[in-house]
Amino acid sequence: MAGKCCCGTGCNLRVFLVVVLMLTASAIIAVSVFTILYVPAIKMTETPVWAGGPLLLAALFSTAYCCPGSKSTQSTQSHGERRKHGQEETGDEEGDEESLCVFIVKVMCIVFLAISFIVCLIAAVFCAVHIVQIFTFASCRSVADGCVCFRSKDADTKRTVYSPVENCDEVFCKVTYTIMASGSLCLAGSLAAIALMASVFRSRYGHIDGDA
């Protein structure tokens, strides 16, 4: 039927979340590349290119599961319709192969979404911790090709060195804003990943006997 939803109940939400994942993963990778090239003072823990990769893979597997006209979505729909009307499974080899493909795609989708949620959440936490650290420095001092910030006024306290930067103002501007952008994108990616994972899981296993 023309205009029929591609992946059953909740399709619009899933498609929206897949688009969000794609855009967020691309943005994370873009910001990470910008950070590596133009803000080298930021450590790799706050350069979450390692979070954008799994998120992009999760988006690709989600697209394979939810894309219009795909065998996986058609098989999922027909399986749900047969269960709803109480019809018996045919058990033919082609149907078994399609069911296996649907199962594999869905499992890979859920696995990568779970990995993306954890990795992006960790990246967001790293960025948040660093932002708190920047705003709680007691003092900062410009040095040759860098900036040294101290946790307290004691000279023997733990210090953080940012290099290369032109001066300490760059730490509170470019470095801070870049880390904020990375952390915000990672947080958005983790929320979208867990929401899509719940929706995809529920589409097959939720309300199995709801009409009984």
Automatic annotation (TrEMBL):
Keywords: Membrane, Transmembrane, Transmembrane helix
Coiled-coil regions listed in the entry: none
PANTHER family hit by this protein: SARCOSPAN
Record keyword Transmembrane helix present: yes
The keyword Heme belongs to this UniProt entry's keyword annotation: no
Descriptive protein name: MARVEL domain-containing protein
Region (Disordered): 71-92
Organism encoding this protein: Elysia chlorotica
GO cellular component, one term: dystrophin-associated glycoprotein complex
Domain of life assignment: Eukaryota
Residues passing through the membrane, by range: 12-37, 49-67, 107-132, 179-201
